[in-house]
Write a structure and sequence with these properties.
Structural class: mainly alpha
Shape: rod-shaped
Helix content: 40-55%
Number of helices: 2
Order of helices and strands: HH
Low-confidence stretches: none
Distance between the termini: 45 Å
Number of domains: 2
Largest sheet: none
Length: 65
């Protein structure tokens, strides 16, 4: 989620401006969340990647046995 369009409920200003402590705290929290590479993936994509990983491990185990 980007915070460029969020409006603070405390001061009614855009969060990107950081006018109040609530804005500044939320802006910092959102910037830390965006550093995680998996933060932008939705849950269905993560489940699909996990299924592909499990299938690959199962195929590899089957070939070595």
């Amino acid at each position: 989620m980007t915070y460029d369009r969020l409006v603070c409920a405390n001061c009614a200003a855009p969060v990107t401006e950081g006018r109040c402590p609530v804005c500044r705290a939320n802006r910092e929290r959102l910037s830390q969340e965006n550093q995680n590479p998996f933060a932008q993936l939705n849950p269905m994509t993560l489940i699909a990647l996990l299924a592909v990983l499990i299938a690959a491990v199962a195929l590899l185990a089957h070939q070595t046995a």
